[in-house]
Every structure is written in structure tokens, then in C-alpha cells.
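Dear H.,

Thanks for agreeing to be a second pair of eyes. The structure we're designing against is below in C-alpha cell form, covering all 289 positions.
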């Protein structure tokens, strides 16, 4: 398939490489200079010329909107605009509307799995948009990832992503604060893990990504909290969740508390560049200083 790939950063470059390696004809574009093993174009509009599928992997909704406005008029008849960035639901729906109005297919397909998943071709895609566009993109999802869930109308991929990550952020925080409480109560961390991971407090944060070093499966805690999933990316996703909740008039008090804690951690407490599970040393330090 002839594919344009716009946004060749930490995620986009390895995703595009996997498509090129699978035999697709990929043309890339990024505003920064990128050393790519496939041809790159001088502009986004040049990149999309004649492409059947245009994939974007960009930092945020404002950039996505401006790129969409630039490239949609240049896209080939019947092509699909496939955005894999994590952006706000409103931007995803606005861009899909713009593409549909121009007679193009549109999908929002944010990913989970991080840079490792992008490199290894093991991402999970959460996809919003119409069935015909989903079917067309399905072989590409299978190359870049291991799973693609069609979640319904445009914007629903972003909705699924932020709801999942709101649960993840909140459970990570409560797991970390529970470990710090257990420390103060004299409960051994291994005993805490052995109980909780097999009791009703279990979660992915505890069982698969334990924030306590040396306990449970290998996780960023065992590597001095080198990300993994950086705290600032969790803050981005929680901020998107709170913006969506406000727009939809949904009551999300625990999500908001998680957003506020990650904001303080990232902006004031040295959390930038640390894994999001580094909330544990942050809670554990309290009271000892
Ligand atoms: P990144 O900053 O490494 O890459 C973004 C790229 O977009 C950069 O190379 C930048 O130069 C380029 N860019 C910016 N404006 C542009 C424009 N107008 N035209 C063309 N290119 C432009 O970010 P990333 O880590 O690759 O993340 C990309 C998206 O994926 C984000 O929405 C992020 O939230 C999401 N995501 C990231 C991860 C992760 O672990 N990094 C995991 C899941 C989802």
C-alpha cells in the first residue's frame, strides 16, 4: 500500500519502519530532520500525494488540527486519514469531520504499548471511525501491532484510551500510597505484594508493573524508575481525560485527584523524566524529611 507517515518521532519512526519492512511504499515527513530508512518528503502535502493511507503520529491536538487542515485538500480520492496520536476527543472528532466532508475516510487510533511496542510491532490500537475505513487499515494495524479494537464512532478510540489511562493513573497512585502506608505500619513490602496481588486489591499496577523495586515482575522500579511510561506522559493523558470530563459534564473526582498529583510531581517535585511508578518514592519520602 502507498502510505504517507507524518510525525517520525519516538513512536512514529519505528511504526513507519515496520510498515516499510513489511513491503509497503512509505513516504515520511517530519518538521525535524530525521534519519529514516525510507524516502522522506519536503513537505506534508508532498508526502500525502497519491497515498491511499495517511498516518499521523503527532504531539497534540492543535498540531494535528493544523496538519489536517494543510493535508486534507491534497489527499487522494478515497484515501484514509489515520491518526495514531493521543489527542483530545474534540480534536479527533473535528479532524474526522473535516476528512469525511472532503470525501475521505477517517480513523482515530491511539495506541498503548509505548516505544517498545512501536519498535517490536506489538502495539494495541483503540480505534474510532467507520467500519469500511477500519477494514482498510486492519492489515496495517496487524503489522504495527498485535491487537486493534474497533470502539465505534470517531473519537471513541481517544475516549477508550483516556478512560483506560485514567484508571491506570489512579490505581498506580493508590498502589504507591498503600505501599508507603504499609512501610509506616511496619508491613514488609514483599508480604504486601504477596497478599494484594492475590487479593481483591490486585491490579495491573500491582501485579504486572509493581512500583516497589525488587518485588514482583521486572518493572521500571528495578531500573531506578527509568521510564517505561514517563510521568509527564501520564500527566498528558490525565489532562486529556479531565478536559473530556469537563466537556461531557462527567463527574471524575478520583481522576482529577490523580491529575493534580501527577501535575505536582512533574511540575514541582522533580518527576519529569521518571517513570510514572516513581510516585512510590515520592510518597515514601514524605514524613522522613
Ligand atoms: P515525539 O515528540 O517523539 O514525536 C512527535 C514528532 O512529531 C516529532 O518528531 C516532531 O518533530 C513531529 N512534529 C511536530 N509537529 C509536526 C508537524 N507540524 N508536522 C510534522 N511533524 C511534526 O512524540 P512520541 O513519543 O513519538 O509521541 C507521539 C504521540 O504518541 C503523542 O501523541 C503521544 O502522546 C503518543 N504516545 C506516546 C507514547 C510513548 O511512550 N512515547 C505511548 C503512547 C502514545
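And this is the sequence the design step returned. I haven't edited it by hand at all.
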Amino acid at each position: 500500500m502507498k502510505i504517507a507517515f507524518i510525525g517520525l518521532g519516538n513512536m512514529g519512526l519505528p511504526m513507519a519502519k515496520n510498515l516499510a519492512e513489511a513491503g509497503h511504499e512509505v513516504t515520511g515527513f517530519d518538521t525535524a530532520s530525521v534519519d529514516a530508512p525510507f524516502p522522506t518528503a519536503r513537505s506534508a502535502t508532498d508526502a500525502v500525494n497519491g497515498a491511499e493511507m495517511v498516518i499521523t503520529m503527532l504531539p497534540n491536538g492543535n498540531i494535528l488540527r493544523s496538519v489536517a487542515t494543510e493535508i486534507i485538500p491534497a489527499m487522494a480520492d478515497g484515501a484514509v486519514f489515520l491518526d495514531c496520536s493521543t489527542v483530545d476527543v474534540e480534536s479527533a472528532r473535528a479532524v474526522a469531520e473535516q476528512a469525511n466532508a472532503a470525501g475521505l475516510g477517517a480513523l482515530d487510533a491511539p495506541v498503548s504499548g509505548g516505544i517498545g511496542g512501536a519498535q517490536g510491532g506489538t502495539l494495541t490500537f483503540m480505534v474510532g471511525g467507520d467500519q469500511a475505513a477500519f477494514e482498510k487499515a486492519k492489515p496495517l494495524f496487524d503489522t504495527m501491532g498485535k491487537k486493534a479494537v474497533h470502539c465505534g464512532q470517531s473519537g471513541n478510540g481517544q475516549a477508550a484510551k483516556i478512560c483506560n489511562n485514567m484508571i491506570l493513573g489512579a490505581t498506580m497512585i493508590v498502589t504507591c500510597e498503600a505501599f508507603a502506608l504499609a512501610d509506616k505500619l511496619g508491613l514488609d513490602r514483599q508480604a504486601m505484594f504477596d497478599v494484594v496481588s492475590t487479593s481483591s486489591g490486585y491490579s495491573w499496577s500491582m501485579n504486572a508493573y509493581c512500583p516497589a523495586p525488587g518485588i514482583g515482575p521486572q518493572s521500571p522500579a528495578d531500573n531506578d524508575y527509568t521510564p517505561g511510561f514517563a510521568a509527564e506522559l501520564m500527566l498528558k493523558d490525565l489532562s486529556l481525560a479531565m478536559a473530556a470530563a469537563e466537556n461531557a459534564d462527567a463527574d471524575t473526582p478520583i481522576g482529577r485527584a490523580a491529575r493534580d498529583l501527577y501535575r505536582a510531581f512533574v511540575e514541582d517535585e522533580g518527576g519529569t523524566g521518571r517513570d510514572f511508578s516513581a510516585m512510590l518514592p515520592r510518597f515514601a519520602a514524605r514524613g522522613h524529611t
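Two observations from my side: The longest helix spans residues 156-184. The mean pLDDT is 96.

Warmly,
E.
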